[in-house]
Amino acid sequence: GNSVTQMEGPVTLSEEAFLTINCTYTATGYPSLFWYVQYPGEGLQLLLKATKADDKGSNKGFEATYRKETTSFHLEKGSVQVSDSAVYFCALSTSGTYKYIFGTGTRLKVLA
Amino acid sequence: DTGVSQNPRHKITKRGQNVTFRCDPISEHNRLYWYRQTLGQGPEFLTYFQNEAQLEKSRLLSDRFSAERPKGSFSTLEIQRTEQGDSAMYLCASSLQDTGANVLTFGAGSRLTVL
């Protein structure tokens, strides 16, 4: 079946450090891929998405590229800020279905 | 646009009691979803509505769970005879049917604690 695997956290970085959160997926067909972010006490918010191979999603300095050959969608940011501290979820949605499959989430803590 | 609203935000109940959660989606969204999230896990799909029709239910949704979306607007999720294993965050999301990626907008969730 379809699944999403994320690197385990927590990830602790100093401000302005480079961030990578790994995400790989297993899916039939051609899924759409997403990163959602959950700040403390808030609902999940869409961070970025990509709908086909080689697409790059980007938002707020975060980027992720849809790599079909490695079935990956790693999240990157060149310089993190304290305000980026949150839980990040990788997810997929396959064509013809309407439900998301989420990874277990990766908690990011950025220290000043 | 006030986003997706969920009530109550927190509910503490005793085992065996019934609880009901309400979700008000973004007004123009015709799809509505319920997910459950436990500590340290990602959200798990429970059920999905398109307008007022409930089109899919997860095997996670036992007979004690029922969801409705009368008139295709707000939705309710009722849990009967609650068990301690039902303790979780219940998330509602909505989306607009279009030809692109199905982007979900989530509410802040309703946290259930069963004592």
Question: If you had to describe this structure to a student in words, what would you say it looks like?
Answer:
The complex is a heterodimer of chains A (112) and B (115). With 112 residues, chain A is an all-beta fold. Chain A has no helices and twelve strands. Chain A has strands at residues 3-6, 11-14, 19-21, 23-26, 32-38, 44-50, 56-59, 62-65, 75-77, 86-93, 101-102, 106-111. In chain A, the strands form three sheets. In chain A, strands 2, 5, 6, 10, 11 and 12 form a six-stranded mixed β-sheet that branches. In chain A, strand 5 and strand 6 (44-50) form a beta hairpin. Chain B has no helices and eleven strands. In chain B, strand 4 (31-37) and strand 5 (44-50) form a beta hairpin. The model of chain B has no long low-confidence stretch (mean pLDDT 92). Classes of the chains: A mainly beta (112), B mainly beta (115). The interface between A and B is medium-sized, with 23 and 27 residues.
Write the layout of secondary structure elements.
The complex is a heterodimer of chains A (112) and B (115).
Chain A lengths: L2 E4 L4 E4 L4 E3 L1 E4 L5 E7 L5 E7 L5 E4 L2 E4 L9 E3 L8 E8 L7 E2 L3 E6 L1
Parallel strand pairs in A: 2-12
Antiparallel strand pairs in A: 1-4, 3-9, 5-6, 5-10, 7-8, 8-9, 10-11, 10-12
Chain B lengths: L4 E3 L2 E4 L5 E6 L6 E7 L6 E7 L2 E5 L7 E4 L6 E5 L8 E8 L9 E2 L3 E5 L1
Parallel strand pairs in B: 2-11
Antiparallel strand pairs in B: 1-3, 3-8, 4-5, 4-9, 5-6, 7-8, 9-10, 9-11
Name the features.
heterodimer; A: 112 residues; mainly beta; six-stranded mixed beta sheet; 0% helix; B: mainly beta; seven-stranded mixed beta sheet; four-stranded antiparallel beta sheet
